[in-house]
Amino acid sequence: MIYIKTHITPEGEILAACDSELLGKVYSESGKELDLKTYEGFYRGELIDEGKIRPFLTGRGFYTANLVGERTVSEAIEAGISKKGQVRRIAGIPYVQIFRIL
Questions:
Q1: What confidence tens digit (pLDDT) does each residue in 28-69 have?
Q2: Under 8 Å CB-to-CB from 30, ≥6 apart: which residues?
Q3: CA–CA distance, 89 with 53 (Å, rounded to integer)
Q4: DSSP classification of residue 81
Q5: Which of 15, 101, 17 shows the shortest CA–CA distance to 59?
Q6: What is the CATH number of the domain that holds 47?
Q7: Structural domains in the chain (count)
Q8: What's the CA gap between 34 and 3, in Å, rounded?
Q9: Torsion of CA 43, 44, 48, 49, to 10 degrees
Q10: Domain range enclosing 45
């Protein structure tokens, strides 16, 4: 399952998505931190099956997306909005930030 949430800002839509089991935890490695506890509310929105995330990734006009977790990032790569070379990891957890010019 994946949590997905859309934030509306004056600049446009921000899409936040995260594998559900990762929320509420902090991951650290080599002085870098992925804080999904403090920022849990940023990601915790609608809980969906990973197979249902594709329309959020491809059919919407977000200007930035913050995607975290194996399933979420894999869906972004399969949808063609990210590439494997863009994926970063902290403590083994993959994440990607996507910026679009609309």
A1: 999 999 999 999 999 999 999 988 998 888 876 788 999 999
A2: none
A3: 21
A4: S
A5: 15
A6: 3.30.1860.10
A7: 1
A8: 16
A9: 60
A10: 2-99
